[in-house]
Write a structure and sequence with these properties.
- The complex is a heterodimer of chains A (122) and B (108).
- The radius of gyration of chain A is 13 Å and the shape is globular.
- In chain A, β9 and β10 form a beta hairpin.
- Chain A has 122 residues and is mainly beta.
- Chain A is built from no helices and eleven strands.
- In chain A, the strands form two sheets. In chain A, strands 2, 4, 5, 6, 9, 10 and 11 form a seven-stranded mixed β-sheet that branches.
- Helices cover 0% and strands 49% of the residues of chain B.
- In chain B, 38% of the residues are buried.
- Classes of the chains: A mainly beta (122), B mainly beta (108).
- The A-B interface holds A 35, 44-47, 50, 59-62, 95, 97, 100, 106-110, 112-115 and B 32, 34, 36, 38, 42-46, 49, 55-56, 87, 89, 91, 94-102.
Chain lengths: 122, 108
């Protein structure tokens, strides 16, 4: 069965960095785009970034552009999100989510991980 | 950026009743509107894609309708497990992908 498992969250001071991972199994990872979506405590969902299946294309929300970097290692079935220059308003549960279609991303999500909590606080 | 506005913010109903949730887009998204359900402590779950197509394994009591700027998620007869938060999301013009702020469906 399809599984996405995030890791790497934790408590970090403002201005510092963190790297999140999303380990995938149960499907051919290299054929799907994967997204990051976050949810601040008690708030709604915010799309963060996406990387295409081959790793050649990436897109970001304006709120994280220039600070976050998405990447993937198809040989290890893993997606990453490098979070730099973290701010208090980056505090959220970060989910990785599979794009619902093989190939070029269509922009919606059929499987989600359980999320990893990032808390930015001094 | 396309803004999605969901109404009502909270809907209080009893099991067996019909639920109607709305999502309005700031500009046309054609039929590229998606619905998710989220329960406390869980990740969102895909319910409906492209306005009216149920995702795999979603019960028939869930249905979606609409096009352009106005969309509706209908739950024909509420089951106890349906009480949750529901989000709409557009995939018409992205990036960015945008979500509505959510409708909380609570037991009356």
């Amino acid at each position: 069965q399809v599984q996405l498992v995030e890791s790497g969250g934790g408590v970090v001071q403002p201005g510092r960095s963190l790297r999140l991972s999303c380990a995938a199994s149960g499907f051919t990872f290299s054929t799907y785009a994967i997204h990051w979506v976050r949810q601040a405590p008690g708030k709604g969902l915010e799309w963060v970034a996406v990387m295409s299946s081959d790793g050649n294309n990436e897109y970001y929300a304006d709120s994280v552009k220039g600070r976050f970097t998405i990447s993937r290692d198809n040989s290890k079935n893993t997606l990453f999100l490098q979070l730099n220059s973290l701010r208090a308003d980056d505090t959220a549960v970060y989910y990785c989510a599979r794009d619902a279609t093989i190939g070029w991303p269509r922009g919606y999500f059929d499987y989600w991980g359980q999320g990893t909590l990032v808390t930015v606080s001094s | 950026e396309i803004v999605l506005t969901q109404s009502p913010a909270t809907l209080s109903l009893s099991p067996g009743e019909r639920a109607t949730l709305s999502c309005r887009a700031s500009q046309s998204v054609s039929s590229y509107l998606v619905w998710y359900q989220q329960k406390p402590g869980q990740a969102p779950r895909l319910l409906i894609y492209d306005a009216s197509n149920r995702a795999t394994g979603i019960p028939a009591r869930f249905s979606g309708s609409g096009s352009g700027t106005d969309f509706t998620l209908t739950i024909s007869s509420l089951e106890p497990e349906d009480f949750a938060v529901y989000y709409c999301q557009q995939r018409s013009n992205w990036p960015p992908i945008t979500f509505g702020q959510g409708t909380r469906l609570e037991i009356k």
